[in-house]
């Protein structure tokens, strides 16, 4: 059986469908928060905005002779980058779409008036490979091959903080650097960091941008992090009071995926040898979370 690489995966907000990228030149696919649009970007430097046509949807009934193909049409084509597009991120309000590229820039597009460019963020000196909005839309974070992570303010699009320390000792490069913000906005977790020569996912606290914690345990570089969109409440130990915490999945080049809670120092689950090749592209699977949560992290 032919095995084509899957470089990106994203699940529709209502869980009814998911999209993948990897064939031809597509490096990233991202649904908008409402599910109305699907954005794709890739090696052709172009970002496509897709929208489901009015007469969409084949039959999903078992045994139906109707081909299950949906007629998606291109609603907008966004051109501006001079190199491959590596990542895309919709703002929580769906007002903006951010894109990053090997041209070292981040474009902020006006999602209300395509194809208007709101601004271009410059400052990275290397390929920009990951983007993440904070859940209230006050900041957008970017990570690049220049061994830095930058936090940008959306009020004026100026750089709030440049973070270099966790990445100074990293060696080599990864295809992507997909970071993630916790749904409560308290934590930003990066890809491809190092601590005492060990690969980690660096935890950056929103308050003061402190870096006292990290997720450590993988044998090779962390390439992608993804938080569940829900804030969870429960107790992880017997006789412990109820508390709120967030859950993140981490993918690595060691072909494994780990599941972490923000209130614990050790992973709740590690799935080894899940794939034949490194988890070097994307993670996005937080749908029907109640069932996943009960299966992976029992009370």
TrEMBL record:
Residue ranges constituting the CAF1B/HIR1 beta-propeller domain according to the UniProt record: 23-159
Any one cellular-component term (Gene Ontology): chromatin
Matching SUPFAM superfamilies: WD40 repeat-like
Cellular localisation: Nucleus
GO terms of molecular function: nucleosome binding
Any single GO BP term: DNA-templated transcription
Family note: Belongs to the WD repeat HIR1 family.
Name of the featured protein: CAF1B/HIR1 beta-propeller domain-containing protein
Organism per entry: Darwinula stevensoni
